[in-house]
Sequence to fold (290 residues):
Amino acid sequence: MGLGVFRVMKATGIIMGVGAPNESKTLGKTMCAIVLTREMGFIRVYPIPAENRFPVWSEVNMEIEKGSDSRHESFKLISFSLGASIDDAGAKREILDSCVIKSGMDDPMVYQNKLRRSIFLVKPTWGDVEVTLSQKVPKVSPDDEECGWIVTQGRHWMKPYVKWVSDQGSKHSSHLGGREIYEGIRNNPHQPWNLMNNLQVMNPDFEHWMLMGNTKKDRNVWLCVHLHRLKKSVGGSIPLFSHPIIGSNSAWPYSEQKDSNVEIVDGHPTLFTMKNMTSIPSLGSIMQAK
Fold:
């Protein structure tokens, strides 16, 4: 295979997050998305024309190839077709929980930066919610007449952030860069605070998962591509079916991860918490082994 020739691959997966459109001089208004595959785990696909439907929780069949984005998980999208949508809350919870990254005593951002990886999913502990408003006057796009209903990130007057804390105790303030976030702002320009109400942030009756991705230009800058939320199930969450997307590899959907997350309290790891008790052998089993 000669230089500059890339192999087109087929991939299937579930759309887990779609970034708000950005504008390119050569490609116009486009989006990127994070797709969960059984074979490769999380991958990033681009460019998706901003006028296309690419809904979260839809199954997707794709043709992809490695493009100019050198990040390990990034692929150029050649073609795609959408399949069924996953609607069962129990199945969604099963998939999300199976994708929460285990980074040991390292904060997940630190852990993925060390591995030079660019995607992870985390179940956050909330801090105070912070929303900041951009003072920059939006630029007029020459494509507004053609697709004026599509508003790119650069043309929005509001840039939302949310504060959260990792299991390891690190505090973060992350840009909410998902397409649904910016569509919510566009559709409710006079009531932007309704955005947080719709996301159920700080509502104790809801569970949240943050799908994080770094930026192409600065790999140490991470944003939330999609904020998943589900109402807590009464009496446990029992999915109607077990979705085959969940991989069998112990590190799936990542190339590498630890056995668990270790909570840090007052600067010290809490190795013996209820969260970790299931992995600790009983005294009786230890004595029998001797």
